[in-house]
Design brief:
The chain is α/β, with parallel strands linked by helices. It has three helices and seven strands, in the order βαβαββββαβ. The strands form two sheets. A four-stranded mixed sheet has the order 2-1-3-4, with helices on both faces. It has a three-stranded antiparallel sheet with strand order 6-5-7, with helices on one face. The termini are far apart. The relative contact order is 0.12.
Length: 163
């Protein structure tokens, strides 16, 4: 199984109102084998607008996560991409407004309530870490040690005792 097989045939929502799907969808469909959907009447501007008609109450990172989870819950699809941009004054060139764009991809695997497994590659059983509920340190450790990381769900199998 390759990485594309994890997503092939699944529907993915792109939570946007601003035509960002034109850049994002072709890459996701080609590289992951998903079918991208952009809901017509999904008003992401309710979380804030650049022009200020609606004040964004959270920082861009929190806002993009809210946008992604909101779309997933609204349309009952567990795969989503959303982005949130912000402009601010450049620290040394005050007349240049740099744009920061945060893009988030969420596949609801119930993390962190279901732990994850990190390993060097899909079938590598040496040096794996199981039961991960905080990913950042482990991911960076594998990335620096092996120039990459394979992350998967660590679904603990539970059996109900008889009776």
């Amino acid at each position: 199984m390759n990485d594309k097989d994890l997503f092939r045939g699944r529907r993915l929502i792109i939570a946007t109102r601003h035509k960002k799907e034109e850049a994002i969808a072709p890459e996701l469909e080609n590289r992951l084998g998903v079918t991208c959907i952009v809901p017509e009447n999904f008003n992401t501007n309710m979380l804030g607008t650049f022009s200020g008609e609606v004040t964004r109450v959270d920082d861009p990172a929190v806002t993009v996560r809210k946008k992604c989870l909101w779309a997933m819950d609204t349309f009952s699809i567990n795969l989503d991409v959303a982005s949130e941009g912000s402009f601010s004054p450049h620290p040394s060139c005050f007349f240049v407004p740099p744009d920061k764009e945060i893009v988030i991809f969420i596949d609801k695997v119930k993390f962190p309530s279901h732990g994850l497994i990190t390993r060097k590659a899909k079938n590598d059983t040496q040096n794996l870490i199981k039961g991960i509920t905080m990913l950042t340190n482990h991911f960076h450790q594998f990335q620096s040690s092996y120039s990459g990381a394979f992350v998967e769900t660590d679904m603990l199998r539970c059996t109900t005792p008889p009776g």
